[in-house]
Amino acid sequence: MSRTSVEVSIEPDVFRWLCGTSGWLAKDIAKRIEVPEEDVRSWYEGKTEPVLPLTKVEKLSEAFKRPLAAFLLSKPPEEIKTLPDFRKLPGAHGDFSKETHLAIRKARRLQNVRSELMENIGSDVRITIKNRTIRDNPETVANDERVNLPVNLAQISTSTPTKLFQIWRDWFEQKNITVLQLKMPVEDARGFSLTDIEPFVIVVNESDAPNAKIFTLFHEYGHILLNESAVCNRDSDEIDDKKIKMIEYWCNRFAGAFLVPEDFLKKELDIEKLLQTTHYSRIAASIANRLKISKESALMRLLTLDYISSSEFRTERDKIRADAALMKEKQNQSAKKSGPAISLDQKCLNEKGHRFVSLVLKNSDLGYITSRDALDYLDIKMKNLEKLRAES
Predict the structure, then answer these.
(1) Do 326 and 348 belong to one domain?
(2) Which among 280, 230, 222 has a CA at the least distance from the CA of 252?
(3) Residues 186 and 207 sit within 8 Å (Cβ to Cβ)
(4) 293: domain range?
(5) Which residue, among 22, 29, 85, 30, has the nearest Cα to 240 in the 3D structure?
(6) What is the mean pLDDT of residues 225-248?
(7) Checking DSSP bridges between strand 178-182 and strand 230-232, what pairing results, if any?
(8) CA-wise closest residue to 167 among 147, 151, 155, 179
């Protein structure tokens, strides 16, 4: 019997779950497997049962980034509830994109993998942080959190955003907070956090600029302090939902207070005197350059401390975003003309971090997992695994 003649029956609930967690729309699915869109909608609504040739199921498996076995389930697996959507709508264009759905699933899987690997070697998966609420003053919380820092203000000013991001990433991972860099459309999500199970996870958008990633990192840490999982973008605090707006304001203010201490503005910059002689956009640029954050983040800090008005902030913010969009377009053009992509081992380190890679290698060396497991967890080939071993 040929593979094309083998038919697969998919349970409607399973089909709905696979579609819903993939981000694929009915029209896209119909085009991918060459069936009428009405048929796909009928399957999704449970009116008819999907019965497809194996070859079409394989196409769906590839598109959804799911194993074939997932299509043979009798019912959807029990999964952690969908992440709360803290993005500003309609700026985020409704539902998550395919890439963001995939990033969320990938982060959840790596969260579970890390938990199992840590238990294998007797490491504690719990994190030792003090839980906060939005009733706590974010300025005070930021000051409380600024203890035993891995870098001081002088070192920050002479570092680069890329190096500084790695320093902060290591600092969080020492707290048992996994930090991942995963690819998503920037307009869809700047980052998200997972606090359902330990170890907790922060995901920043791989496509974002290094200095913007730093602010996102601390914004999402604010969510972890509040024990709130969330998917966020840069305007989440402007959403209509009152609770979400309060949480996002708290997280933005915490991140700003941590990265731009008020004492720094008063003592190092003499901010009040500076504002009398220098335009606030130049001051924001100076803060961004000194502290390796984005100019928009620096501008937001001036707003939260009432050094500038909301209208001044919005006007300058829109200019910054317009300039950034032009710069991004130029970078994309340059990227098309650039050399070969980075190696899988370097991509693995950027995405998952040195600590996760070391944890996988240690489990492999101790015989808790096979080399095939290690390749699967790290998403690399054998030659890349040997390179990682040599670097560790």
Answers:
(1) no
(2) 222
(3) yes
(4) 98-333
(5) 85
(6) 80
(7) unpaired
(8) 151
The confidence score (pLDDT) of residue 176 equals: 92
In a domain, 104, yes or no: yes
Strand partners, 9: 51
Judge if 197 and 267 occupy the same domain: yes
Segment (H or E) for 193: strand 191-194
Q: Are residues 361 and 223 in the same domain?
A: no
Q: Which neighbouring-strand residues pair with 193?
A: 202, 230
Q: Assess if residue 1 is contained within a domain.
A: no
222 and 320 both lie in a single domain:
yes
Same domain, yes or no, for 294 and 362?
no
- Domain assignment present for residue 90? The answer is no
Question: What does the pLDDT read at residue 99?
Answer: 92
pLDDT at 90: 39
Tally of domains within the chain: 3
Between CA 152 and CA 156 the distance in angstroms is 6
The CATH number assigned to the domain holding 10 equals 1.10.260.40
Looking at the structure, tell me whether residues 179 and 308 fall in a common domain: yes
Reduce the DSSP state of residue 225 to 3 states and report it.
helix
Torsion sign over Cα 158, 164, 166, 168: positive
How many Cβ atoms are within 10 Å of 379's Cβ, its own excluded? 14
Distance CA 120, CA 114 (A): 10
Q: Within a domain: residue 89?
A: no
Residues 318 and 349 in one domain: no
pLDDT at 24: 87
Report residue 384 as tokens: 């890349």
Helix axes 242-259, 210-225, angle to 10 degrees: 120
Instruction: Write out the H or E segment, with its range, that includes residue 53.
Output: strand 51-53
| C-alpha span between 143 and 260 (Å, rounded) | 11
DSSP state of 4: G
- Convert the pLDDT of each residue in 280-326 to its tens digit: 999 999 999 999 999 999 999 999 999 999 999 999 999 998 988 88
Is residue 22 domain-shared with residue 114, that is, in the same domain?
no
Proportion of the chain in helix, strand, coil states, percent, rounded to 5: 60, 5, 35
Three-state secondary structure of 63-93: HHCCCHHHHHCCCCCCCCCCCCECCCCCCCC
Dump the DSSP string for 330-343. HHHHHHHHS-PPPP
